[in-house]
Amino acid sequence: MKQLLKIILLGALLGSLGSSVLMADIKKGQKDYLKTFKSKFKMNGTKFATLHTQEEWTKLFANEGEGFKREFIKNYPKSKKTLAKKNIWKKLQHVKDFAIEYANDSGNVPSCG
Q1: Helix (H), strand (E) counts: the chain
Q2: Alpha-carbon distance 58 to 29, whole Å?
Q3: Is residue 68 within 8 Å of 60, Cβ to Cβ?
Q4: pTM for the complete prediction?
C-alpha cells in the first residue's frame, strides 16, 4: 500500500514538473514572438496565434519551420532577413509552442499584446 502511494505521488510530481516545462516553452515562445516578430508582422500575439488552427500551425512548423518561413516572408517581406538566419529555428520552436497553444481552435487566449 505504501509503495502504491509513493508511485502515485511520484507520478503527480513528475506530471506537475512536465507541465511547467511545457508552459516555459509557451511563455518563451510568447516572449520570442513579441521581441522578434511583432514589429515585423504588425500584429499582437493574440492576432498572430489565431491566424491558423493547431493542425495548420503544426504543418507550417514542420521541417524546421520551412512552411512558416515561406508564408511569412511572402506576406511580410520585412521578416525575410530575420527568418533567413541560421539559428532562427531555436526561437521558432518556442513560437510554434505558443502558436499551437493559442491557435484559433484551441479555446485559449494569451495574455499578451
Answers
A1: 7, 0
A2: 14
A3: yes
A4: 0.76
From 109, 3, 104, select the one nearest 55 (Cα to Cα).
104
Report d(CA 34, CA 99) in Å as an integer.
12
Query: What is the per-residue pLDDT for 18?
Result: 47
108 close to 56: Cβ distance less than 8 angstroms: no
Domain ranges of the chain: 25-113
Q: What is the CA radius of gyration of the chain?
A: 17
Question: In degrees to the nearest 10, what's the CA dihedral of 43, 47, 50, 51?
Answer: -40
Of 28, 39, 48, 42, residue with least CA distance to 97 = 28
Map residue 28 onto helix, strand or coil.
Answer: helix
Report the range of poorest mean pLDDT among 19-28, 37-46, 66-75: 19-28
> pLDDT tens for residues 57-91?
999 999 999 999 999 999 999 999 999 999 999 99
